[in-house]
Amino acid sequence: MLRERMKRWRHVFKLDPNRSLSDLALEKILTSGTDAVIIGGTDGITYRNTRELIDRVLDYAVDCVQEVTNQEAVIPGLDGYLLPVVLNTRDIQWMIGAQHQAAKKFGDWIPWEDTAALGYVVLNARSRVGRLTDSQADLTTRDVAAYAQLAEHLYGLPALYLEYSGTFGDPKMVEAVRESVSDIQLIYGGGISRGDEAKEMARWADTTVVGNLVYRNVDAALGTVSAIKEEIEEQVR
Ligand SMILES: CC(C)=CCC/C(C)=C/CC/C(C)=C/CC/C(C)=C/CC/C(C)=C/CC/C(C)=C/CC/C(C)=C/COP(=O)(O)OP(=O)(O)O
Ligand SMILES: O=P(O)(O)OC[C@@H](O)CO
Ligand SMILES: [Mg+2]
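^ Heptaprenylglyceryl phosphate synthase, sequence as received from the core. Prediction below:
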């Protein structure tokens, strides 16, 4: 079941079908020791570019799931599907509308056991996802903690995603959210460009996601895997 597998992810790379990556860079990423690869992005996601990237990733043993942001680009037969639900959007389309349209079309074929919702709180209003979803991102730690508690206790979501896409977030925010919830899987993503930054967020987050760095500096991206392993060792000591 996807929810059980996801809980074990500490480090994840997010790969964007709309960006190109050499075979060598992809091989380095997929053999890095990361726990999983999420395939997804905000813009320019098509069936064709998603299929092409997934076919290259499936040659490796790493856990590979699709984060669905375009219902026309779903690739059947994968190990898992993540469906974003944006909690702080001002536009209902990104909270329930797009998901409803897709469920109307695919509902009887969706492998629900291997499908999980990600409750997003988008904290960088200027990011692509912030602009697309018109998210209200000027939030206090109490605001975000309140979303986290609703996600966990009222909506029963498996995971809460603190999304700073493109900018390094506030570790104090991640700490405050960590302290406000108990079982929900806390995912951090955004602006990680060095191992120490990954380590800092992994202190509070269950799962830390590295995205754009893969395309900017693949060797620095690999360094985030070992940094998170160090953090895990320190936590068990
Ligand atoms: C056999 C068969 C047919 C199987 C199908 C199974 C299946 C799972 C079907 C899907 C059903 C379904 C309900 C789909 C949902 C469709 C949908 C369109 C939902 C809306 C998703 C949503 C809220 C999108 C908004 C944007 C968002 C939250 C994106 C998340 C990812 C993200 C933030 C990526 C980062 O973006 P990026 O562009 O890389 O950012 P940079 O600028 O930093 O690069
Ligand atoms: O691309 P970056 O800024 O690393 O963000 C990763 C991920 O949270 C994007 O959804
Ligand atoms: Mg990206």
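The chain has one domain: 2-236.
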